[in-house]
Amino acid sequence: MAIGHIAPRRLADTIVEQLETMILEGTLQPGERLPPERVLAEQFGVSRPSLREAIQRLTAKGLLVSRQGGGNFVTESLGASFSDPLIPLLEARPEAQRDLLEFRRTLEADCAYYAAKRATEVDKAQLQKVYEELQGCYARDTDRDLEAEGVADARFHLAIAEASHNVILLHTIRTLFNMLKDHVVTNIGGMYAKEAETRLGLAEQHRLLFDAIMDGRAEDARELAGTHIEYVQQVLSERSENHRRLERAMRRDKLTRS
């Protein structure tokens, strides 16, 4: 039996694998700037030429982009699965918005379940941070920033996805939120603006979900996440129906006056 030589592994291969893992697991996020080469080489304990070779290979793969004088960045469009022209079509159709929320319900229930089972102390610290930021938005009775509330809400759900330690769920959720960022923020902001009861309901749901994940109650977390998205569906459906009724009434009034 002929036995071939085993080729030694290049150091750059190991660096590429490490950086790919960091991108895949979400440690390095889309659009994030990598530390300077000198710092990164020291952190990895490798030479700068080997690191530079790894970065060039990841750039060729489309995972990194190098900017003249600006450093190296994770590609911003990483994981994008929908083209831009499709976004306005989805945003303009109520049935597509319903489908989006149904999809979110399935994904986020699983994210919450696995987050409750797998969250590390580091994950819990990050979840605590974004949860407190969201609570800080709720606490502002005056001078409220609805867009900031929407962004804080999205960050909370993304932190849950990160804590699930399922890279497919994480990147799907992140792509979904990035794809329809304005839509998500607008909807959430619109819900908060609707009435105090709705805002209090969302705050309570987030508190219960946060507690379930932090306590490791996986089944409760799954159920609470699903219930939360169902509540969002219900409120937005009512809001959309009320808007249609108002438009109908205004058309009738205009016809009567003419």
Describe this structure in a few short sentences.
The protein is mainly alpha-helical and 258 residues long.
Walk me through the structure:
By secondary structure, the chain is mostly helical. The protein has two domains: 11-74, Arc Repressor Mutant, subunit A; 85-233, Four Helix Bundle (Hemerythrin (Met), subunit A). It contains eleven helices and two strands; from the N terminus they run H-H-H-E-E-H-H-H-H-H-H-H-H. The protein has helices at residues 11-24, 37-44, 48-61, 86-91, 94-118, 121-138, 146-163, 167-179, 181-194, 196-215, 218-257; strands at residues 64-67, 71-74. A two-stranded antiparallel ribbon has the order 1-2. Strand 1 (64-67) and strand 2 form a beta hairpin. The longest helix has 40 residues, at 218-257. The N and C termini lie far apart (96 Å).
Features of this protein?
258 residues, mainly alpha, Arc Repressor Mutant, subunit A, Four Helix Bundle (Hemerythrin (Met), subunit A), 2 domains, 2 strands, 74% helix, WH-like_DNA-bd_sf
Give a topology summary.
Elements: H1 11-24, H2 37-44, H3 48-61, E1 64-67, E2 71-74, H4 86-91, H5 94-118, H6 121-138, H7 146-163, H8 167-179, H9 181-194, H10 196-215, H11 218-257
Antiparallel strand pairs: 1-2
Helix pairs in contact: 1-3, 5-7, 5-8, 5-10, 5-11, 6-7, 6-10, 7-8, 7-9, 9-10, 9-11, 10-11
Mean pLDDT: 81
Please name the CATH topology of the largest domain.
Answer: Four Helix Bundle (Hemerythrin (Met), subunit A)
CATH architect. name of the largest domain: Up-down Bundle
Number of domains: 2
- Which band does the percent of strand residues land in? under 5%
Structural class: mainly alpha
In the sheet with the most strands, the strands line up as: 1-2
Largest sheet: 2 strands, antiparallel
Count of helix runs: 11
Can you tell me the CATH class of the largest domain? Answer: Mainly Alpha
The CATH superfamily of the largest domain bears the name GntR ligand-binding domain-like
Topology pattern, helix = H, strand = E: HHHEEHHHHHHHH
